[in-house]
């Protein structure tokens, strides 16, 4: 059964395959191939990540972003990256922001996610969001803000299936609050 895990080098091959499935303009953004450690943004191209040593460095930096003591680029908050995997198959990514800046409160929210195109329409996005809620609760966040584009019916259904309650629409984004506690 697929599960959320911290980034790991064991999915190197399938991570690159998933990258290839996305439209070129979405690849770097949705694969999470950027970090903000040391106060600067660093991005990786697919070509960079073919190298196992560079992929290992990317994984380490992605994990480091969750450290509340990490020095991050201006405007970037501590955040946890979790990957949704089935064995060595990379299926998707969760980004969990530990706090909200004014722009994140307005548009971005605590939680963002993506599922690789070949794994869509299998309920994985809902499962990812549901599996992430205890982790988010462990960060002391309850409820969590999750947003989606107003026209993204699939994402709206995912958020509602996880218990999201619509607050409002702002700047073309629907804003939902999702309880993270289990009681």
From TrEMBL:
Residues of the N-acetyltransferase domain: 53-164
InterPro entries in UniProt: Acyl_CoA_acyltransferase (IPR016181), GNAT_dom (IPR000182)
Pfam families named among the record's database cross-references: Acetyltransf_3
Species, as recorded: Kribbella yunnanensis
Stretches of the chain forming a coiled coil according to its record: none
TM helices/strands, residue ranges: none
The organism's taxonomic lineage, starting at the top: Bacteria, Bacillati, Actinomycetota, Actinomycetes, Propionibacteriales
Protein name, per record: GNAT family N-acetyltransferase
Taxonomic superkingdom: Bacteria
